[in-house]
Amino acid sequence: MYQLSFNIKTPDGIITLSQQEFINQYWQKKPALIKSGFADFADPISPDELAGLAMEECIESRLITNHNNEWQAYHGPFGDFELLTPNNSTLLVQAVDHWHPDAAQLIEPFRFIPNWRIDDLMISFSTPSGGVGPHLDQYDVFIIQGQGKRHWRVGESTQTVNEVIPCKDLLQIDGFEGCIDEVLEPGDILYIPPGCPHEGYAVENAMNYSVGFRAPNQRELLSSFSDYLIDNDSGNKRYSDPTIQLRSNPGEFLQNEVNDVKAQMINALNNDNDFNLWLLQSLSEAKHDLDLAPLEDEFDEDYVRELLSQDIEIHRLGGLRCFYLSTEDAVLFAVNGNVLTLPNNCLAWVKTLCENVTMTSDQIKSSTSCSHFIQNFTNLLNEGYWYFD
Ligand code: SIN
Ligand code: CO
């Protein structure tokens, strides 16, 4: 288990902050260098294992090279690693938490930010001088330095930068002023808010772990909400105007008519039932494949009850998105794009499942008398969302 300390490097020395102080001073505000954020850091995965993942069809990977100032980007899966040269190259693998339980542990210390905002763990391996070049990301990220050293520069989001495309499939910026300029050592962590320019080049072979976050934009939300209305045959109320006003020019669109159309759209969003179900469904969908293996021989409820009476550990599938909304009428429990509407007395077990990526049967045993729990948890095990060794 990794223990995170917010030892922030400031001009006055290192200051250790609480999670709340970190949020107040840095989260979504300005970049931070967290010195020895993880003390005595041990890499959870080796470069060879990472390369193995980059050979898989269902795992998204990229290789970026910058030989003689010429950038090239290649997409995986990779059959060999000839392009991963002893200098000037970086291999990046997305959503490693979905496939590698030990690496997935690196996300856990960041759960002071809620599950619905966490995205995935991207891991890179860089050879000396390797990096992806100066760029911006749209999302917050914590970049943990694993083995090796990497020289990072990070700037504030307030400056104007120009985007450049040095080669196909690589978006960079042309230069920026840094407020952090440091060589990171194992266990050091950079926090980079959205839109802050940054670049990192390995000093020696280096592993970097990026814990990324999600923040949907209006366009994505509105488009996804429309899809939900279509799929659920909702939002059918049509524009009506029983008191339509006469006007001198048939071309005129009246302001109150514009307001009425906008109100019609807002009414659709104001339907709490549609809105809540859509939001939980949409935000709990995985962006990358999961290592999902539904059971061929399904468990029945009696078997699960018996199982939980034994002393076992139960794991949540790596990268599985789950969270809940507790309303007056029900608990909405979102798991991988499905929403269960449960009575309020289910809140305790829903909380236990959302809070722990690994739980003991002891932690959940008291819920086995609840028929909702046994029925739903049996389904979750059969789907492969939770499993035990
Ligand atoms: C990397 O690890 O090389 C890229 C991380 C980033 O800059 O987002
Ligand atoms: Co970045």
What would you note in describing this structure?
With 389 residues, the protein is of the alpha+beta class. It has three domains: 208 residues, Jelly Rolls, CATH 2.60.120; 60 residues, no CATH class; 88 residues, 50S ribosomal protein L16 arginine hydroxylase, Chain A, Domain 2 (Malonyl-Coenzyme A Acyl Carrier Protein, domain 2). It contains ten helices and 21 strands. The strands form six sheets. An eight-stranded antiparallel β-sheet has the order 3-13-8-15-7-6-4-5, covered by helices on one side. It is globular and about 70 Å long. The two termini are 19 Å apart. Cobalt (II) ion binds next to loops.
Layout of helices and strands:
Elements: E1 6-10, E2 13-17, H1 19-25, E3 32-34, H2 47-53, E4 61-67, E5 70-75, E6 89-93, H3 101-104, E7 118-126, E8 141-145, E9 150-154, E10 163-167, E11 170-173, E12 180-184, E13 189-192, E14 198-202, E15 206-213, H4 218-231, H5 255-269, H6 272-283, H7 301-308, E16 313-316, E17 322-326, E18 331-335, E19 338-342, H8 347-355, E20 358-360, H9 361-364, H10 371-383, E21 386-388
Antiparallel strand pairs: 1-2, 3-13, 4-5, 4-6, 6-7, 7-15, 8-13, 8-15, 9-12, 9-14, 10-11, 16-20, 16-21, 17-18, 18-19
Helix pairs in contact: 4-6
Bound molecules: succinic acid and cobalt (II) ion (CO).
